[in-house]
Design goal:
By secondary structure, this protein is mainly alpha-helical. It has helices at about 10-70, 85-95. It has two helices and no strands. The chain is rod-shaped and about 115 Å long.
Length: about 110
């Protein structure tokens, strides 16, 4: 770094200028880092709040399960006593067999004979 008159500045002035420049750069980094910390702190609070909501939800669901096991839930409604309603579990109950065709379904009508 030279002065306008072409002479070299004295070492003390040059060193102070370098320190000032470095100090400005470090101050800028501090401000950027503080902004990042603020952003991360906000994000951390949001995540902690979400975790708390999940804990509350779990606790609520477990308490509802405890209540239902204690017999506080109403009994299941009775199924109608109609023949069609009794056939539904028979048709869909055995999922290991192949799907029923029109010949194998009760009441499907006469089967076609070749």
């Amino acid at each position: 770094m030279t002065r306008r008159d072409g002479q070299e500045p004295d070492p003390g002035t040059w060193l102070l200028h370098k320190i000032g420049t470095r100090e400005q750069a470090v101050t800028c980094q501090i401000e950027q880092t503080q902004a990042e910390i603020d952003t991360l702190t906000t994000r951390l609070r949001e995540l902690e709040e979400a975790a708390e909501h999940l804990r509350i939800t779990r606790k609520t669901l477990l308490s509802l399960t405890d209540e239902s096991e204690a017999g506080n839930t109403p009994p299941a409604p009775a199924l109608p006593d109609h023949p069609a309603h009794r056939q539904i579990p028979d048709i869909f109950g055995d999922l290991t067999r192949p799907p029923a065709g029109p010949r194998s379904m009760p009441g499907a009508g006469p089967a076609h004979r070749p």
